[in-house]
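It is worth pausing here to work through a concrete case rather than discussing structure prediction in the abstract. The textbook approach is simple: state the sequence, then state the predicted structure, then interpret. We follow exactly that order.
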Amino acid sequence: MGDTRRRGRLDGHIEFLGHLYFIWAWFNALIAAGMACFAVSAVLLARATADAPPGTDIAAGVTAGGLLALAAAAAVWAGVHWWTGRALHRFDRNGRLAALALSIGDSFLLPLGTVLAGYALWVLLQEDARRTLVGEG
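Step two, the predicted structure:
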């Protein structure tokens, strides 16, 4: 397991950023699980009342569909963040590109996503990080 690459001054920050992406992935996975539970409960709640007003089934279906769509998006978001964290831990050049791309979307997820995006941009846009991850220069 001999790592022959030269250690840069930002290696600790890159590894820590990988840890943060793992934590963010777990957080988004919890959001996905919660949304899926809400979708199931919306359907069960509509079916539980025998004297439900007309249109309740349609409203429950639309609500459940929307919540399931959000759950699927959060699960995909979690998976992509997990992959990015793993790539950053391996100092893979694609991890840098993925983290920079994800920071655009993360910046709108106040407050934690914005902090993660800012830290990712601060670390990965420095020349030393580019040299470490891309291997040029």
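Step three, interpretation. The two ends are 25 Å apart (CA to CA). The mean pLDDT is 87.
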